[in-house]
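An example makes the point: we let one protein speak, the chain in one-letter code, the fold tokenised, and here it is:
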Amino acid sequence: MPRKIKIIQIIPTLDIGGAERLMVDLVKGLDKDFYEIEVICLKRFGVWGLKLKELGVKMFLVGQKRKISPIGFIKLASILKREKPDLVHTHLFGADIYGKLAAKLAGVKHIISTEHNINRSEGRIKKMAKKFVFKYNEMSVAVSQAVKDYMIEYEGAAAGKIKVIYNGAIIENFLNQPSGNGEKDKITIGAVGRLTRQKNFSGLITAISLIKNNKIECLIAGDGELKKDLQKQIKDLNLDDKVKLIGQRKDIGVFLSSLDIFVMPSLWEGFGIAVLEAGAAGLPVIASAVDGLKEIIEHNKTGILVEPANENELSEKITYLLNNKIERERLGGNLREKVISNFSLEKMVQEYDKLYKSLTGYARFIDK
């Protein structure tokens, strides 16, 4: 029997979020006959931590309270030195910086990271810190070609040390759900994501205000720092009967099944796993023509692309789909086929599996 490859995943928290969910899905999907997987959280375990605990995954909490924490760094390095992983895989800024430096100090031979987004909100100091620790990376993973291009241009990453591995959706969670596209009083438009500037839900709310149709409703699932601002906008525009912020939803499959149209009005997006999930659910998607979203949506074939931050165009395209059920079914069907063929979780896990084995030299783990 081969000795298992020991992988330690490092992430700031296991709160609800796209990067956190990707890491959890990866841990769950990897073959436990080949891998021994552990997780280190810098700040707190969160919701996904409970899921990993149920699966019996060994986890460590550093308990970092501040952005700069020498004690936290020493604790992290000591965990890595004691556990002796074959490879460390970091996710998100804090883990990328602390994790790579601590792994290097602990003598870990193989260090990689995944870049989950286009980080336009990051300042100069953060970009400088990333450039500094890139030298410790054996390989970086970008979740889309757009993210790879951004890393090369703005973060100083070497093109030859970046591999694109697209995020994957658990397609089975979105198939065979009761459809929301049957006969009902209202057509439901939906969106999912953190209530942040990047997601531009303010633009979606404005677009809904421009639509003169009382038989629609718009449901936005998620939470974030702009919640109060968006609630005020809804009230100021007298949209309380049309637009509702419904908070975080645990069962996104059920939520998506209640929709007729999915909208992703982001100002920028590294990839957009919410679009994959909407596609797996068979929904027609209207998305901003930005970055990674253009790698999923082909205009007028697998969805509709609109100019970012153009509320007039967004309202026109929503109205077009409201009045054209056949087009909704065509676009939704085409996107579902593309998601199933190209963006399954199984395919994502297979790509990471190949990367892990190639970097660690899997043959050396097999008893001769």
The two ends are 9 Å apart (CA to CA). Residues 237 and 308 are 21 Å apart (CA to CA). The chain has two domains: 5-168+344-365, 171-342.
